[in-house]
Amino acid sequence: MTKEITEYLQKEGLEAEFKRLNDDRSTIYSFNDDNHLLQYLKAATGQQSSSGIQAPTEKKISSAKLKQGHEFAQDVRFATLYQPSSQQISETAPGAHNIDEKMMPPSGKDHYWAKMPVGSGNSYFLYQHQFNPPTTDTIPLTFGNPDAPSLIMNQGGLNLGMHIQPTKKKKYKKPIKRSEATYGGLPTVPGQVRGHAFALAQNQISTDDDESTMDTDPRTYTAESDSTQSNGGTSSWRYNQIENAAIKSDLPFTQINHDISVGAMGIAYPSTIFYRRSTPTGYDDLSTDNTGTTNYRDTNKVRPKNVGQQAYQSTMGRTAARYNPYPTPSIHKPGKDFTDAKRHDYPGYMSPPPTPFLSDVEDTEMTVKGSPIPGAKVKLGDGKTGIVTKIIKRYPDQDKTKCLVKIPTETDLPDFGL
Description:
Elements: H1 3-11, H2 15-23, E1 27-30, H3 34-44, E2 57-60, H4 63-81, E3 82-84, E4 111-118, E5 121-129, E6 138-143, E7 150-155, E8 158-164, E9 192-195, E10 222-225, H5 235-249, E11 253-262, E12 268-279, E13 282-289, H6 309-323, E14 331-332, E15 361-369, E16 377-379, E17 385-395, E18 400-408
Parallel strand pairs: 4-14
Antiparallel strand pairs: 1-2, 3-5, 4-5, 6-7, 7-8, 8-11, 9-10, 11-12, 12-13, 15-18, 16-17, 17-18
């Protein structure tokens, strides 16, 4: 409701009665026109006689239908704010869609992850903000075993974070010695280390390019603080406590680079690095300083005698994670509550219609042109707009997709951002 309408209703003493009708989510009140509504409100507030004033048409909404409408409202709001990115997880790495939701790497600034129905399962898709579009796309990079790949998210040439999955299959990696490493052609910088995504023994091959590996692709690197410096740092500690631990356990870890700046090497230089290690019983979260200012080395006064310096650095990381928790990325799902606190600041944004108006919806199977993904808006032949809710089958040779599309059935329902 616009500011002008609110002020008018307040001036005429009609706001309370209007809100009563509007807030009654179990009933749709239909009026012939604006004047009919005004006359009814004036009669209901005692400002004039109700004689000759027709009551509105009422349509009761069941609790089940109301729930359906609420869920669709979330999908409408998400589709209004976010639409599919041109950059998606490669089809050469189908196993990326099996990554634990709580271990997904970040989507990037003005991007959002969603997990949507495809065939008999669910897949991850990347979406971009429509009212505040990103200046650069986030690009998902996949390496290693296609059925259980490593996923590295890069935006503007910077490694935002990554889900690293060890592989035992030789055909998916090219182990190298340190003397053979190319470091992606990156320059050296005093006090920092060109941090590989994973140990050189796990130098995984790109699922899209057999000639590219984690070592040769500069987009996979993170500038790490040098563990040989006076305070200690990230590099050797990460190799021993995170990378080798993952190889020995054959369990993945996720790294999130936080508060990123462009370092002297031209790659991501995060001030803090978060880690989430998968364990047989759950997760092991750590938060570590990557600026070289935290004294990880001189811990003799507090470190138990039987605990090594790097092991104690891990203990410090776990303690830090309790006060500075691991930032699990948000993942949207169909019908899941979704909002954006700044949505009303975006020029042109329109909220979804009231829930009752979305309660009568249909999931219609249809074949549409192109390769839309769930959450995409599609224009229909009758001029309406629907939202793709599930991909059933793609026909790439015909450039068509069979899918389910959710369509509001109220014939007079405006687009409301759709």
